[in-house]
# Entry
Amino acid sequence: MIARIWHGITPIEKSDAYLEFLQGRAVPDYKLIPGNRGVYILREHRGEQAHFLTLTFWDSLEAVRQFAGEDISRAKYYPEDQDFLLEFEPTVVHYEVY
# Structure
């Protein structure tokens, strides 16, 4: 199994709206991909910012490719992300799960 981890930062005042967006748009997209084994959204408030981690689990790297495209290390963003995120990290990380 493969874990994929993405990180993003929003202003604290937009964190609730961004969480709702993730739950309504991103999480369903993940779950539609064959081989997705779970989606978790983690949030931490740090001062005036909220840090988000999206932790997804996949059967294989091929399942990740079906979601992310050929270059699985590139982060996937939605057009709406520009309304929330303070920066756009270009990559994500993957780990084998044991």
